[in-house]
Design goal:
This protein is α+β, with helices and mostly antiparallel strands. It is built from two helices and four strands. It has a two-stranded antiparallel sheet with strand order 1-2. Strands 3-4 form a two-stranded antiparallel sheet. Helix 1 packs antiparallel against helix 2. The chain is elongated and about 50 Å long.
């Protein structure tokens, strides 16, 4: 979800139209891209019953915590906030 908010904030920064804001915008979009790539590579788990799902946590050793948090943003709200586009 952080990647989605970085992308949205970069649109706001783009409106400032200075050299510094252009660099910041590019950094924000690059970071968002890296976060999405990491989630795609390490955070998607194939569940035998439900297919491809997002893991709540991964430990870096191949283990996942398959749950969700009741707060927002949550994995269930990923579609609503525009992350899964």
């Amino acid at each position: 979800m952080f990647a989605r908010y970085l992308e949205a904030a970069s649109v706001v920064v783009e409106q400032i139209k200075t050299k510094e804001s252009d660099l910041l915008k590019l950094e924000m979009r690059l970071m968002a891209s890296k976060v999405r790539a990491g989630i795609t590579k390490h955070g998607i788990f194939h569940h035998p019953q439900f297919g491809q799902i997002l893991a709540y946590e991964v430990d870096g050793y191949g283990k996942q915590n398959l749950m969700d948090d009741a707060n927002l943003p949550s994995l269930l709200s990923a579609v609503v906030i525009g992350y899964m586009q």
